From TrEMBL:
One of its GO terms (cellular component) is nucleus. It comes from Chlorella sorokiniana (Freshwater green alga). Residues 1-46, 102-232, 294-320, 839-884 are annotated as: Disordered. Gene3D superfamilies: SET domain, SRA-YDG. Pfam families: PTM_DIR17_Tudor (PF21743), SAD_SRA (PF02182), SET (PF00856). InterPro entries: H3K9_HMTase_SUVAR3-9 (IPR051357), PUA-like_sf (IPR015947), SET_dom (IPR001214), SET_dom_sf (IPR046341), SRA-YDG_sf (IPR036987), SRA_YDG (IPR003105), Tudor_AtPTM-like (IPR047365). Its main location: nucleus. Residues 865-884 have a biased composition (Acidic residues). The keyword Nucleus applies. This is Histone-lysine N-H3 lysine-9 specific SUVH4-like. Signal peptide: none annotated.
Length: 884
């Protein structure tokens, strides 16, 4: 043999290691590990013994016997089939002690396990001591003989009762079979009396499972090499060639009305619970702190409680079945386009986008991905918690999970291992599957200090293992964004400095026409933007529009713009308007103007008087007016929609003064907005800030008329119409608990007595357009008087609203009926796009089936995912986390 040739290692046989001293451990030391596995031919058919919980109620533990039947090369595991038909895959380290135990007990064939209750799936019970095992094995043969005798007696009687087959037709044959069954049952009962109830146990046992048909051969994919790039042509990804891959891959976004509505419904319910959970958590933590303080020194040693309203809201949403459940979604989540935002991780979990509440990698384990299919990731979070991350926007070197002191120094303190999420990302390379990438953006402008923006699908193209900046081994995976998904909305994320989005200010907004249409009447300027013609218009022709409340002298001077910012109206257009004698047709106002008879009636409105017994605590009286509950949270969010909200009156001498949280609509809104040219519906309004659900956005201001008087003007004055008119009364469609009233209950309400018209005098709210899928709603409020005939009109957010999103209202069916050519809102569920009644029913049924088949999930929890979610939560600590 050449000196350079490695010596061949002898492979141990089954008999060698089962009887060798190594299997029992060295004397006076710790038992050694299992020897190298022998050839499968020597393991196949061997018996194993393992303890399981057999009775969930009594927690009784019993041994079950099984045989080794198959070996899977993909993950080096062995399939064991137990006597009750259950199957289990074990690796060699777990199988070896079970083989040793079977040999020590002399197990060589079936036991009484077939008559025992089926074992409980889950973790094996603690193994019995060898002495107990020997005693149990010694007691088994007599009972086994009794069982055999009982079976033989039952079989003999059954055969006698069956008799010879009759030449009669099928009906007679069925009767004979039924008679044979009765005879067999009687025989089993007779044998049970003689065999100490063994036959009865046999009669009660379940029918044996039919033998499994031979499965198709499992295709095994090679593992990706380190530091090697893997790119696959479209349609040639390895996952497509695996018949056992059982997950649909959404490579195109489903933006149908049904998919979008499903996501929005789950989000709205979650955020409604979140608003209430914040109050409940404040009370719980305050109560617990008071208890600890009362305990004195002992209480000072206890851990201080922390508030987690997000997790409470998630639990409540799931408890009522309002979350989106189902299998993991691979690729795009239906109804969640690129650029979509959530404001806490629990919200993403409720829509089935990213399930783990802490871990940065959401993945499907190998045992659930299909036989022979490796584990793979579906979603990753880029949050700036790992120092070795490198975010270059379109490409990312993403650090794997584990070994990071996330709750304290955020430093890498241990080597990472190739398991769980790290192993799954390696599986994405093997399969050619993309992952959803979401970046965390931090800003005090967000409701909870951070925002999670979906940036699209990224391919995992390379992996490496190297020394990180702290000298620890870390796994890194290179992610590359798929083309054709639009520009990135989020900013790049760096360790220790999560980026915030760029600030939007009027003088750097392309297409700005007017820096402030309110002329300083509002606390924050409201710019007007027209950028519809900048990319394709001829600057030598008159271009751009001017808001109806902006005079020519109020148009912004180009010298006041920053950098290369272009004005939204050119000089040619200004000269054209000047030649035509243009004058503003609308006056901007910030208060109600009572017209004609209404001015006299306003003096007799019901006063907001504070009873004497509540003068020291006006908020208690406010609670009474609002049917037992204060209207707003400390963050200024409405708990729920109500017929009308009574606010703290400015004349009540409230101890909180102007800062009273229950004078919300009496202060300027804290959210910046701008008017802009929509290109389809004239001027509209969009937000420049993030607006959380149920937040106050703006008041609707204008001229207040008696309803009959305004209707007369509409019918007699040509330019007067109802497009800018709002009713000033409590909502007839809502109960005080926030539930919807039935159409019969709503019809009982009388007509409103007063209306607000924003045709000639208005504030920014009159520029808000209609949408069949609105994000604002009307909430009547009462502040300085308590006359419900003439409520103030406040607009609140219906959902979380991202910056640069248009703000819209549902004007109602009466408005749409008068709109020439139908609705122009372009929402996915716009009434102009809806089919006829029969077609709509058929489309809805088909859409539900397609969503279920596609794995988009449904707002219904009962889908068998509870066990999977529990496993994910159990593994959070060892996962390594990416947030919180």
């Amino acid at each position: 043999m050449s000196a350079l040739s490695p010596a061949k290692k002898k492979q141990a046989s089954m008999e060698d290691f089962l009887g060798s001293p190594r299997s029992a451990g060295k004397a006076g030391g710790k038992p050694a590990g299992p020897p190298p596995p022998p050839p499968f031919e020597e393991v196949k058919g061997r018996w194993v013994v393992k303890d399981f919980v057999a009775d969930r109620r009594t927690r009784e533990v019993r041994p079950f016997r099984g045989q080794v039947t198959r070996h899977f090369k993909s993950d080096a595991s062995y399939e064991v089939i137990y006597e009750d038909g259950d199957r289990e895959d074990l690796d060699w380290a777990d199988l070896w002690p079970l083989l040793q135990r079977a040999k020590a007990e002399g197990v060589s064939g079936p036991s009484q396990a077939a008559t025992q209750p089926a074992k409980r799936r889950g973790r094996p019970a603690k193994q019995q001591q060898p002495e107990q095992q020997r005693q149990q094995a010694a007691q088994q043969p007599p009972r086994q003989q009794q069982q055999e005798q009982g079976r033989a007696a039952a079989a003999a009687v059954a055969a006698q009762a069956a008799g010879p087959s009759s030449p009669a037709g099928k009906g007679a044959k069925r009767k004979q079979e039924a008679g044979a069954g009765k005879g067999a049952t009687a025989a089993a009962a007779a044998a049970a009396g003689a065999g100490k109830d063994v036959g009865a146990a046999e009669a009660k046992q379940k029918k044996p499972r039919a033998p499994r048909e031979p499965s198709e051969p499992v295709l095994e994919l090679p593992l990706p090499e380190k530091d090697q790039e893997y790119s696959y042509a479209k349609g040639k990804e390895p996952w497509r060639s695996l018949p056992q891959f059982c997950y649909p891959v959404h490579e195109e976004l489903d933006s149908s009305a049904a998919a979008v509505a499903r996501i929005r419904a789950a989000q709205k319910i979650f955020n409604k619970h979140l608003i209430q959970a914040e109050v409940d958590e404040d009370e719980r933590v305050s109560q617990r702190i008071a208890e600890l303080q009362a305990m004195g020194r002992k209480g000072a040693q206890e851990k201080r409680p922390s508030k987690r309203p997000d997790r409470v809201a998630e639990s409540r949403t799931k408890a009522e079945g309002s979350n989106i459940s189902g299998k993991h979604v691979v690729g795009y989540l239906p109804g969640w386009p690129v650029g979509s935002r959530a404001y806490c991780r629990a919200e993403l979990g409720c829509i089935n986008f990213h399930r783990p509440p802490v871990a940065g990698i959401d993945f499907v384990a190998a045992e659930k991905s299909g036989k022979g299919v490796p584990s793979f990731a579906t979603s990753v979070m880029v949050s700036g918690w790992y120092q070795d991350d490198k975010d270059d926007a379109e490409t990312i070197w993403y650090t794997g999970e584990g070994g990071n002191d996330l709750l304290h120094s955020r430093q890498q303190v241990a080597d990472q291992e190739l398991k769980r999420g790290n192993k799954a990302l390696q599986g994405n390379i093997t399969l050619g599957l993309p992952v959803r990438v979401t970046r965390k953006q931090k800003s005090s402008a967000y409701p909870y200090g951070a925002c999670y923006i979906f940036d699209g699908l990224y391919d995992v193209i390379r992996w490496r293992l190297h020394k990180g900046k702290n000298g620890k081994n870390v796994f890194q995976f290179q992610l590359r964004r798929r083309p054709g998904q639009g520009e990135l909305v989020s900013q790049r994320v760096e360790w220790g400095a999560i980026s915030a989005p760029r600030k939007l200010v009027p003088n750097n907004r392309q297409g700005v026409v007017d820096l402030d249409i309110s002329r300083g009447q509002e606390a924050r300027p409201i710019p007007a933007i027209d950028d519809t013609w900048l990319t394709c218009g001829d600057n030598h022709e008159p271009q751009g529009c001017v808001p109806p409340c902006t005079a020519l002298e109020d148009i912004v001077d180009e010298k006041a713009l920053v950098g290369k910012t272009m004005r939204g109206v050119n000089q040619e257009r200004i000269e054209e308007l000047r030649a035509a004698g243009y004058k503003p047709s609308v006056q901007y106002v910030t208060a109600y103007e009572y017209k004609d008879k209404v001015a006299d009636m306003a003096r007799s409105f019901k006063a907001a008087e504070l009873p004497a017994q509540f003068r020291a605590s006006p908020h208690e009286y406010l609670k009474t007016l609002n049917h037992g509950k204060l209207p707003y949270t400390a963050n200024g969010q409405l708990f729920s929609v109500r017929p009308v909200v009574y606010e703290c009156c400015p004349y009540w001498q409230c101890p909180d003064g102007d800062a009273c949280p229950y004078r919300l609509t009496q202060r300027p809104s804290k959210y910046r907005v701008e008017v802009f040219q929509t290109g389809r519906c004239g001027w509209g309004v969009r937000t420049l800030d993030t607006i959380p659900q149920f937040a106050f956005v703006m008041l609707y201001m204008g001229e207040v008329y008696k309803r009959e008087e305004h209707e007369h003007l509409v019918s007699t004055v040509e330019e007067q119409d109802t497009e800018y008119t709002m009713d000033m009364w409590p909502r007839p469609d809502i109960n005080w608990d926030g539930s919807d009233r039935t159409p019969e209950e709503a019809a009982v309400q009388t007509q409103p007595e007063f209306v607000c018209c924003g045709l000639r005098k208005r504030n920014v709210a009159a520029f808000v357009n209609h949408s069949c899928q609105p994000n604002l709603f009307v909430q009547p409020v009462l502040t300085s008087h308590h006359d419900e005939r003439c409520c103030g009109i406040a607009l609140f957010s219906m959902e979380n609203i991202a910056p640069l999103t248009e703000l819209t209202l549902d004007y109602g069916p009466a408005y749409l009926a008068d709109w020439p050519g139908g609705c122009k809102c372009s929402a996915v569920n716009c009434v102009s796009k809806q089919p006829a009644a029969g077609e709509a029913a058929a489309a809805a049924a088909a859409g539900g089936e397609q969503a279920e088949a596609a794995g988009g999930g449904s707002i219904d929890k009962g889908s068998g995912e509870e066990e999977e979610e529990e496993e994910e939560e159990e593994g959070e600590e060892e996962n390594g986390s990416d947030d919180e």
